[in-house]
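Reading a protein record of the kind used here takes only a little practice. These numbers are not coordinates but entries in a learned vocabulary of local backbone shapes. Here is one such record, which you should read through line by line.
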Amino acid sequence: IRKESILSMSTEVFCDLIGAVRLHWRHIMAVSEPLPLLSVVELIGLIGAVREKMDTDEEFGQELREGHTSGNPMILGPRLPTAEDWATAQVKGATDNANKWLTNTIRPKKNFKEEALRGTTIARYKESMQRVINEGTWEGGMALVDESETIATIERMGSTVYTKGITDRKPKIRRVIAALREDRLAVCAVIDAMPVSTDAEREDKMIQNKRALQAIGRRRRGAS
């Protein structure tokens, strides 16, 4: 389906489209095997199209942002909290657990230096850090770290530094969440259309939601 087609649809027609997406997972054309789930790349395009429709179709955007009484599921209130409420809750959660953060940081379950030097850790960041790995500067740099000194510094500074850091960054957190929220609402429009009658369908929905969240991350980094 072309993005231009989605943008020109009325809200009613778009809901019919979502119904058609639902049929995709209900073995359309009476095929005996489930059709493949949408890939992350396909979801990037679909999320982008839904986002653009949210921005250009006031009625459609308002229904996703504020809730609606039509369709299934029926959403009587906002599907997600506002960016301000979301950011406030994140900051409050972080500050309320500042002492727990301090305790867990100075008494970690794993040695962060040993974990950083593990082959699996290096492999995880290999693509983005290929140059420093090839030059050996990653291992060399970590070898200079004194982990006991790092822990002692954190303990000396205390949890108030963590709390202040989170609180001071609230405007940035709110800005990022405001954009993220719109993508999450677009995902809701797609994921909510999936059937959940059987265990297999519910499992498919979880997998598709995971891929959709991956698609959001890639889309925010400029992937297409």
